[in-house]
Amino acid sequence: MICISCNNEHEEKFCPNCGEKNGVKKITLPSIMEDTFISVTDMDKGFLYNLKSLVLNPKRITSDYINGKRKGILNPVSFLILSITFYLVMITFFKMPRPLGDKEVILGTTYGKFGYVIGKFITTNLKFFWILSIIPLATSIQLIFKKYNLIENLAISSFIMGLAILASGIGYLFFRIPIIFDPVLYLVIMWLVYKVFNEPKNRSEVFILAASVLFLFILHLALIMTIIGMIGS
User: With contact defined as beta carbons under 8 Å apart, do 185 and 175 qualify?
Assistant: First the structure.
């Protein structure tokens, strides 16, 4: 077999010269679709592996990723982006009924205009808003637990936010609550923070710290939304 990358002749699974995988298929539309489908649905790697691991043992997958054991684990930011995409698909196909009321009356009040600006900004920039939300979440975790550095906590926050947004997307089918006000999102965040940092001997303390992380995160979001509303108004 001739290596497709360096032309080295060998019979190994991976080229001993450059490490390229043996027998790499030519790129075609079916092969791209197949690889994409496998990366999302394979329970031993990719998106569903992340989902399964975060539900069953979030502490293990996050610690494995931070410690360099990343075989089969989908990059946490990619996982977050796919989760947000899933949420966007859900709200597109199952649109929330428009609230009754006169838009002119709502915008005629200070608070109404303020809330309208915030809501419009978040709706327009939903994907970017929730990707960037890992920064205040990671900062909150860093301040409360002081266990990992900020970059490592950003990775943990991406895992946490990814699963929380997935749960919110499923909950949207039943409750039709905008994600920023969805209690499912915040309960999953708190539960995952607790599970990731849980210590058998200090469960009560870790639960209080996880609640503190959630409270601090919500304060950060409130501050961000206030700034958005002030700028937009």
Answer: no
Please work out, in degrees rounded to the nearest 5, the angle formed at the alpha carbon of residue 212 by the alpha carbons of 192 and 74.
25
Q: Which tens digit of pLDDT belongs to each residue from 109-141?
A: 554 554 555 556 566 666 778 888 999 999 999
Q: Where would I find the H helices in the chain?
A: 29-41, 47-56, 58-66, 76-93, 103-107, 110-124, 126-132, 134-145, 150-175, 183-196, 203-232
pLDDT in tens, 207-225: 999 999 999 999 998 887 7
User: Which residues on neighbouring strands pair with residue 2, listed in sequence order?
Assistant: 9
CA–CA separation, 93 vs 210, rounded Å?
Answer: 34
| Torsion sign over Cα 156, 134, 159, 174 | positive
Residue 230, Cβ density class (10 Å: 0-12 exposed, 13-18 middle, ≥19 buried): exposed
CA angle 11–16–20, rounded 5-degree value? 85
Could you tell me the CA-to-CA distances from 212 to 49, 158, 160, 178, 194 in Å, in that order? Answer: 29, 19, 16, 23, 11
Do 160 and 193 touch, CB atoms closer than 8 A? yes
Beta bridge partners of 46: 73
pLDDT at residue 106, rounded to an integer: 43
Six token digits for residue 133: 């939300």
Contact 176, 93 (CB under 8 A): no
